[in-house]
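Hey, quick one: can you model this chain's 3D structure?
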Amino acid sequence: MKIRVKSFVVLAAACGLVLSACTTAPSGLTVLDMTYPLDEAAIFWPTAKPFSLTKVGWAVAENGRWYASNEFSASEHGGTHADAPIHFAAGGRTIGQIPLEEWIGPAVKVDVTVQCARDRDYLLSAEDLKAWEKENGRIPDGAWVIMYTGVGTRHYPDRKMVLGTEKTGAEAIPELSFPGFSPESVEFLVQERAVKGIALDTPSIDYGKSADFKAHQVLCRAGRLALENIANLDRLPTTRATLYVIPMLIREGTGGPARVFAIW
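Sure thing. Here's the predicted structure for all 264 residues.
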């Protein structure tokens, strides 16, 4: 597949050659980086292996030449990352089986920050989506529907404020508390709308108190994609933007770190 972009500068900015989170390219297009960096502060599921980086070298060698290299390790599902259908659906596609074009689509931002400020465990409903459509028009085919909770914008990477607990391991699970998609909202999007995927600014599309991860099950069984822990949603317009996702291409990956950006 060939993807046309109006300017190489746009791609350069999106891929991190411009350090600002939001930039305007010479073409007049706006590029918004929606990715949290992977470092020791990156938020991972409490039972998952966190990100670890070891510097190798980073010095001038005996021959006088500078050399730097790192080694890193982490769970697939942490920081800004993507979920493939295999994550919660037996026989579903892995990251390596998903064509690049499926990671690109119109960005639809559903702002429920007011509701989430009142209720840490707020669930996006199908009625929220229908109300959004009354104001903005039908969700376009191939869209990414993004739930803007405000949790990431206000608190990332504060583990206590994002996850609801500072604990790690199994003892953290009962204390998890953050908003997410209701299973009914996901059913609406995959059965009545032709979305490519869903995304939000919390660690999981299922809310923190979920015991069955039903939203994941519905989405993955339908072969759709998910993004979690995405950044800078306060700067994303409600419509007009196109979302681009570049996940780490792990052949048998159930998910993986992703560079996420929007252009409009």
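One thing worth noting: Residues 1-19 have pLDDT under 50 and may be disordered.
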